Structure formats: structure tokens, C-alpha cells
Automatic annotation (TrEMBL):
InterPro entries: Glyco_trans_2-like, Nucleotide-diphossugar_trans
Keyword entries, A-Z: Glycosyltransferase, Transferase
UniProt cross-references to Pfam families, sorted A to Z: Glycos_transf_2
Domain Glycosyltransferase 2-like residue range list: 7-175
PANTHER family in alphabetical order: GLYCOSYLTRANSFERASE (PTHR22916), GLYCOSYLTRANSFERASE EPSH-RELATED (PTHR22916:SF51)
Protein name (record): Glycosyltransferase involved in cell wall biosynthesis
Gene3D superfamilies reported for this sequence: NAD(P)-binding Rossmann-like Domain, Spore Coat Polysaccharide Biosynthesis Protein SpsA, Chain A
Amino acid sequence: MNEVSISVIVPIYKIEPYLSKCIDSILDQSFTDFELILVDNESPDNCPLICDEYAQKDNRIKVIHKEHGGLLSGRKEGLRNANGKYVAYIDGDDWVDKFYLDILFILAEVNNSDLVVTGHFREFDGKIETVKPVYTGVFEENEIKSSILPKVMYNGTFCEPEITTYVWSKLFKRELLKKIIFEVPDEIVMGEDAAITYTYLSISKKLTISRIPLYYYRQRDGSILKSVKTPKVEYYRLGLLKDFLEIKLSPLLNKKNLNTQILYYLYSLILVRSGGLIHDAFGNIIFNPFLKTEKNSKVIVYSSGSFGRHFISSNSKSNFFKIVKWIDFDFHELNIGDNFVEPPSFISNTEFDFLIIASLNPSFVKSIKAELTLMGIDPKKIVQINTDEKEISRLLVKLGFENKLTQ
């Protein structure tokens, strides 16, 4: 196939109910100079058949059937078969706006950028949230190295990176992407997007960031706890990610800055994967990130979103906290074990010890705290996440990470 402007790569595995919507949204693009590469990761459902049927109808589609591997292996295989000047990754259970490729291409060409970053929509349980980058603009190589990379994973506010890790809200130059992606170990299956995005950024000469949301990210209920193995396996995988980021970014960042960024990024991943309470390699709870709370504290939990559900599920197994109520302003009927989501109603400050807003998004937490305070909740009882660098460093050492993160 001759070179096209954009190669769209879609890794596919066990997403049959969502795949057609994804493919249709790509084929319906206002921008037409693209090829669509569907990478079937030996999916055991009807995804392979769906891919082949679409390929018979549209000659822009190329289907690759490969042995089962992780998401990263699918992205690599797609790139090996790509012919575009640029590459856009789309996950097979997501979908995109009609003008997605059009706007990405314009932003890249007008600004002669190696990397384009945009906003996105996050869909979960029928609710759609708009997520936009904090900063926008065009950044030259010197600005990338002096201003973006030193804050790319941690900008001083926990869980508020300068640039999100996701490869699917971005446009890459194919030849530049080929220089880094094949060096990322296939064994990295936690934070693989960070390994690609941040390493790619480190060799980019021009970056464009736009707030326009064009990509619809589907947070599936079943994916909240996806592929979580034993803690030992999880921490081993995170160790691979840490080592890779250190090797690739150390030539551009001073040791203290890089260690701090990686420390907070690993901590955020561990919190998300654990559901809040952190376990050691043997499954024992060794760290409670919710300040002031203790075992058997009477707790109200706010949020029925992905992290809230994970938190409730995790606590149902450990019974660390005594859950008094589970609430959400955006009420949906839901139960996990003996816990049922309720719409916020009158809550007496005497019936609970603490209220946990189950989210790692600082802006969301601030907003909900303000609303709960207006409803009479004692703000002193609303819990903060522990973000003390020294305590997190000691935690990571306990989990088996090298001591250099504390230096």
C-alpha cells in the first residue's frame, strides 16, 4: 500500500460488543486519507470475524491476526505494518468524533509537530465527563526539555500530570515512533502508555497541545479490576516500567526530579490497582493512604465511579473500614456485596468518623468537598490522600522497589 497521511491502529481482544461502533466511527471520518489497521490479538470471540467482514467492504482496512499477546504487542505489530506519515492509536472498545483525524492532522501539519495531544471524553456507566489538558500551546524542543518533561508525570499536584499517558488521545510521527516503541519491553503491561508517550516526548522537537475533546474513552465496569494478578506480579511489572523510564529520561532530567516524578506516578498506579489500601507481596495490608483513618473507622464513601467501585470491592474483602454509607450525587442503582449506592440525603456528622471521596482527581475532590460542606458535612472529616514523599518512598522500598527512589 502506498503511503497515506495517517495509519490508525486498533489492537483488539475480547471486545465484541463494542468493536463495530469503534470501526464505524473511524470509517465515518471527515478525513479520508488514512489506512485502518485492525490487530486481532487472537481474540476468542467473534472479533476476528468482524474484522475480516469489515475488510471485505472497505479497502482502507488491513487485518492482522497474530498470536495472543498484550496490548503493547498489538500496538507494535500494527506499527510494523503501517504506511502513514502519522500514527493514531484507538482502543477497540472506544470511539471517536467524526472530525478526530481531521483536527489531529491539521494541528500536526500547521505546527510541524512531532506530537499532538488533545482532550477526550470519558464515558462510564452512561455518564460522560470531559477531560482537557491543563495547558495548551505549541512547544519547541527547548521548552519540552526545560518546562514539560520536568513536570510531565507530576507537576506538584498529585495525579495531575502535565501530559496524560494515554497514547489514544495523541498523534505520533511514524518514523519517530519506530525509534522508541520497539525498545519498550512487552512485559510492561502496567503503564505501557507512559513508557511510550514519555519516551517519545523526550525525542520530540515540537509539541502541540489542544483542549479540543475528540476521543471517547469507554471505562468499562469489567475493566476496573482487569488483569490484576498477585501483588508480587504487579510490583514486578511496575519495576520494569520504573527501570525503563529511568533509563530513557535520566539523560534529560536531574536525578531528584526524575525520582520524585516516578515515585508519585508509581504510587498513583498502585493506588488505582489496589483500590486504595495497599498490600504487600503476600496480600497483607501494609499501607493505608487515607489520612487520619484507622482500621474499623466508620466511613462514608463518596463516588460510584471506577475508583469508588474498586475501593468498595477491595474493602468488602478486607473489612478494613466499617462502611456506613456509599453515596453519589450522580445516583445510579448499584450494589457491591452488602453495600448499596444511595443519593446523598441528610447525614448526621455523629454517625461516621470520616468521609472518603474515592477519586484521585484533585479537581473533582475539591469540587465534591465544597458541595458536601454546603450540605452540612464537617469538612474536617473529609479525608485527604497521603502524598508525603518520604512516606511513599518508604512504602515503595517495602514493596521491593530499589532504594534509589528515596535518595
